[in-house]
Amino acid sequence: MNKIIVLFILLSSSWGFAKDDLHSFCEGLDKTLRHLNRSESRPCNSPSLTPTSARLVTYQGQKATVMSEEDAQALFTEFKNNQDIPFDFSLAGCEQRAHEMSRLLLLKGVTPLKGFASVDESKSPRLEIPHPKKKGEIIRWKYHVAPVVLVEKDGKIVPFTLDPSMEDRAVPTKQWVGAMTKHNPKMKVRLQYANASQYDSNGRIRIDPRDKDFMKANQESLREFKEYSKDPHGEAEWMFQQQLMEDKMNSMPGF
Question: How does pLDDT run across 25-41, given as a tens digit for each residue?
């Protein structure tokens, strides 16, 4: 902060306030502060990005952040308003959305889990939710994933899922699963709480959400999903491209 004060004095003396050029001064000061924010110098004291109620605990063998429900809801609202994550393209992309949200949570000092809900199609029907944009239609999944934070409520620690692709607020994870099984409440669903680095339901792919190379690829996928979401025929096009890819893989030796 002392550096900023010194720069303020130097800038004000060099620009000459006798000319009353307040607009130029403000522009120059803004550029200077932006430069300082990008530099590696020690930042001024400022409120932490981490929720005030947050603390790290161990839950089912995994390190995760526990916080108040109020703070969990604030995080949900922030995600819901994030224009870079296409929550309205529910047909696909849950892995990419969950990974990007986990990355953003880690940047805030929050250690999330990922909640994977999956079904064995030979024993249960698929998970279902109402289509977010097409009334009367439904979305079906073999599995679905979203980030999870822990909430301290009535003296107990409760997993809460942050999933704007199907909810309008952070909800207890059991309620999240229940929303996908309304068509068959007795269906068998496997619920797994995993480290944020787990990418798929089987745990075959594990990548730190902060991995810069993968982050770029993941964000590119999200941009593609966003373009599909803008197109009235985007879902059909996505499914067509998936079928082409599957046919190509099946035609390759060894598949």
Answer: 545 555 544 544 444 44
> Where are the chain's structural domains?
2-38, 55-230
User: In Å, how far are 57, 72, 80, 99, 195 from 60, measured between CA atoms?
Assistant: 10, 20, 28, 20, 11
What does the DSSP assignment read for 142-200?
SEEEEEEEEEEETTEEEEEE--TTT-SS-EEHHHHHHHT-TT-TTS--EEEEEETTB-S
Using only C-alpha atoms, the chain has a radius of gyration, in whole angstroms, of 23
The number of residues in the chain equals 255
148 in Cβ contact with 134 (< 8 Å): no
87-145 pLDDT, tens digit each? 999 999 999 999 999 999 999 999 999 999 999 988 889 999 999 888 899 999 999 99
Average pLDDT over residues 152-167: 95
> Pick from 46, 90, 52, 47: which is nearest to 72 by CA?
52
- Overall CATH class of domain 55-230: alpha beta
| CA 23, chain centre distance (Å) | 39
The full DSSP string for 22-85 is HHHHHHHHHHHHHHHHHSSSPPPP---SS-TT-EEEEETTEEEEEE-HHHHHHHHHHHHT-TTS
Determine contact, residues 73/211, Cβ cutoff 8 Å.
no
Taking a C-beta distance cutoff of 8 angstroms, is the pair 151, 144 a contact?
Answer: no
For range 191-197, the mean pLDDT:
97
pLDDT band per the 50, 70, 90 thresholds, residue 10: very low
